[in-house]
Amino acid sequence: MGYNGEIIEKRFRSDGAELWLAVNNQEQKVLLLPKKIGRDKLRLEIVRALKELNPLSPKVTGYFGVNSVSFQDDLALLEFDYNEKLWNAWEEGKLERMTPKQTVEWLELCGVICQSMAQAELKFAGFHPADLASLGSEEVGIFDPRIREIFTVIDPPAPSVEAYLPPEVIRTKGWSESSYLYTAALVGYTMLGGEHPFYLGSSAETIHAVLEEAPVDLRYLAPETGERLAKLLRDLLVKDPSRRPTLEAVQREVSIICEDGPDATDEEQKVYTVKADSAVKKRENLHKIKRFWRVGRWGIAAVLILIAIIVFERPGYKPVIGTSTPPDQVVSLFYKAYRELDVLLLDETLAKGVGKDINTMVTWAYVISRYDPNGDIKTVLVLKDLEIMGVTKDENQAEYVANYTLERYTGKEERVQRRSDHLVLKPAKGIWRIISLDSKILNEDITLVDEAEP
User: Fold this and answer.
1) 76-92 as b/e, with b when 16 or more CB fall inside 10 Å?
2) Residue 123: which residues within 8 A CB-CB, separation 6 or more?
3) pLDDT tens, residue by residue, 136-159
4) Minimal CA–CA distance to 114: which of 50, 178, 49, 187?
5) Terminus-to-terminus CA distance in the chain, angstroms?
6) Which of 41, 175, 281, 384 can bridge 373 by disulfide, Cβ–Cβ 3.0-4.6 Å?
7) Which of 149-158, 198-207, 391-400 has the highest mean pLDDT?
């Protein structure tokens, strides 16, 4: 089934993204955004989600919602109202930076979307730079953020998903209006300042930075930013969602900034331009120090920092394993954490440096599950048919063998593995932990996207 209309022209952005100009069956000029949906078992789930993706109302200038969806081979063709500015700016490339004026427009659009989502009782996974639509040098638009959310598993946006998760979502408290506004401000800060406010490294480093680091004053990165706009973004990026401005307060502040102007005065620009290099270098040095300590070059001190990271990731988190926890229960808790993507509990069952591959796999799956506001994506990592058998056990050591089936989906392939783990536990200071984990793949079926049934 192809597009029920006439495709007039195709334009390509520098990153390969396409936008098509078409005339639909009602003889209206429209824009089509082609998106690959593959042929794997998630195809039906994506198709279903797209068909339910009605545009938000009321429509506002700069918002691009999907009017209809058609399918052609392995593509979904998302139809939008024709917008001359979007069409003309497409080949200029993806928007890399925003001006203060565009940033205010962005916050205004995000506020309207938050309102519309709330009125329709819909949840979504916040905002991301991938949602931005360039409308030329002076204006900015936004694609419905649910589009990016639907395609995240098969086409993860860059920067990484975890870089745009609010602290409370990482801590499993779920999405809220405050969370949405946090991500709107995070995109605004990044696009106006030219860099993310937090250190982006490995998944663990990024998550820790989001949870703990404070952003440098935006005016050091973009001296042209007015004080009021910089303060609004800073207030929206506080870690505690209860201390962030409400949507109504943000909309009032945006109106004032629009009226007074979002740009800094000449004198303000001079002050922050002079201090900019020093402030940025201090932050870079801090990041270097943190990275240096994280790689464990300072032995015990590094261990203490890692412990602090774990504690900070979930305030009030109480260790589950204690001196009274027998080794067989530790093994059961390990597979419970494995199945439920509980990163902290998993870490608690393992001695330092043990099970890195499994830890990384579970962390990745956890981040993807946090990204989906409804928790609907269940095929990323599924552990089932678990059997645990004791091998030997005395007061100094216990050994177990666990057999199970693991289903993994990476977006390009699906792997169904039958695995067998050999676990060795020893007590340290009276607490049993897994000190050796040998995980073997007994057999594996791999289904590539192109080989799967449509």
Assistant:
1) bbbbbeebebbbebbee
2) 117, 175, 373, 374
3) 888 999 999 999 988 887 777 766
4) 178
5) 13
6) 175
7) 391-400
- Closest to 49 in 3D by CA, of 161, 179, 144: 144
Structure tokens, 95 = 């928007």
How far is residue 410's CA from residue 396's CA, in Å, rounded to a whole number? 40
- pTM of structure: 0.67
pLDDT given at position 46:
84
Q: Which domains does the chain have, with CATH numbers?
A: 1-94 (3.30.200.20), 95-317 (1.10.510.10), 321-451 (3.10.450.50)
The mean per-residue pLDDT over the stretch 300-316 comes to 43
List Cβ<8 Å contacts ≥24 apart for 18-24. Answer: 19/86, 19/87, 19/90, 20/77, 21/82, 21/87, 22/79, 24/79
Hey, what are 126's tokens?
């916040």
Q: How far is CA 9 from CA 6, 23, 92, 289, in A?
A: 9, 10, 16, 52
Amino acid identity of residue 420, one-letter, is: S
Residues 6+ apart with CB under 8 A from 326: 432
